[in-house]
Amino acid sequence: MLSLLQGAVSLGLLWAIMTIGVFITYRILDFADLTVEGSITTGAAVSATLVVSGMNPFLATLIAIFAGMGAGLITGLLHTKLKIPALLSGILTMIALYSINIRIMAKANVSLLRVDTVFSPFTAMGLDTRNAVIVFGLICVVAVILILYWFFGTEIGCSIRATGNNPRMIRAQGVKTDTMIILGLVISNGLVAFAGALIGQFQSYADIQMGIGSIVIGLASVIIGEVLFGTRNFMNTLFSLMLGAIAYRIIIAVVLELGLAPTDLRLFTAITVAIALSFPVFKTYLGTLIKSIKRGP
């Protein structure tokens, strides 16, 4: 059981970075961005290809982040400059990234066995792989949370948040909402690619199919984090996202341990997200039912 929890926590911390990226578009910008299904693979593909070629894994991960930011930039330009609907612009970029990612790797997958990764310095200190991932993953997630907490408290960060909440009002204040949308998408997909780079190095390979369903995983983690750990303030929300990603991975590990077929995992995830998103409706129905019972016939 301890090994099961270690594996879930280690992977959950890496996916937490991706969850925060999804949160930026889904909650802050109110933008349904499917680019993440391609940009997470881009992060893994770029970092894996560069690491295998002999580049320092930390530098390779940094370049992977910029590659993901480029993907977000493309989606933002398609939406704001060419006026393509948000959902469709993300789909177009995601489709294009499939071919680009294969070009980057020159094949369907790249193995990272017997090469140094960002976790190697921690394993060299005597930690096993999972504990090394937990330590480094926690450092990365906390750093991302603190940086984003500071950034979204700045004038630009507040403008991005206001763009998602009330674009007409913020435009009246002289803010270019198109620029804010593009910037939000760039940050979001940079974080998603960062997560992809770390996940690829953790599982010792990058694969062209690894991004399929990632948006649903991200949404599930966001909803679980918000429902279980609350959204009292922005800092609390960011840490809730981290805990939500970990909780989601623990739930998945437990249901697999109980006998759920791996092929049914995506179905289980979709049902979990549907229930979580429908929770306010169920809560309203339940409240109405309780009131009617109290009033009596």
What would the keywords be for this entry?
297 residues, mainly alpha, two-stranded antiparallel ribbon, 2 strands, globular
Describe this structure in words.
There is one protein chain. The chain is an all-alpha fold and 297 residues long. It has one domain (2-212). Helices cover 77% and strands 2% of the residues. It is built from 13 helices and 2 strands, in the order ααααβαααααβαααα. The chain has helices at residues 2-28, 36-52, 57-80, 86-105, 120-124, 129-151, 155-165, 167-172, 177-203, 214-229, 234-257, 265-277, 279-295, and strands at residues 109-111, 205-207. It has a two-stranded antiparallel ribbon. Helix 1 (2-28) runs parallel beside helix 6 and helix 1 (2-28) packs across helix 10 (214-229). The N and C termini lie far apart (51 Å).
Estimated share of beta-strand residues: under 5%
**What's the mean pLDDT score?**
91
Give the SSE order as H and E letters. HHHHEHHHHHEHHHH
Strand order of the largest sheet: 1-2
Domain count: the total is 1
Number of helices: 13
Kindly state the percentage of residues in helix: over 70%
- SSE-based structural type: mainly alpha
In short:
This protein is mainly α and 297 residues long. It has one domain.
Would you spell out the secondary-structure blueprint of this structure?
Blueprint: H1 2-28, H2 36-52, H3 57-80, H4 86-105, E1 109-111, H5 120-124, H6 129-151, H7 155-165, H8 167-172, H9 177-203, E2 205-207, H10 214-229, H11 234-257, H12 265-277, H13 279-295
Antiparallel strand pairs: 1-2
Helix pairs in contact: 1-6, 1-9, 1-10, 1-11, 2-3, 2-4, 2-9, 3-4, 3-9, 6-11, 7-9, 10-11, 10-12
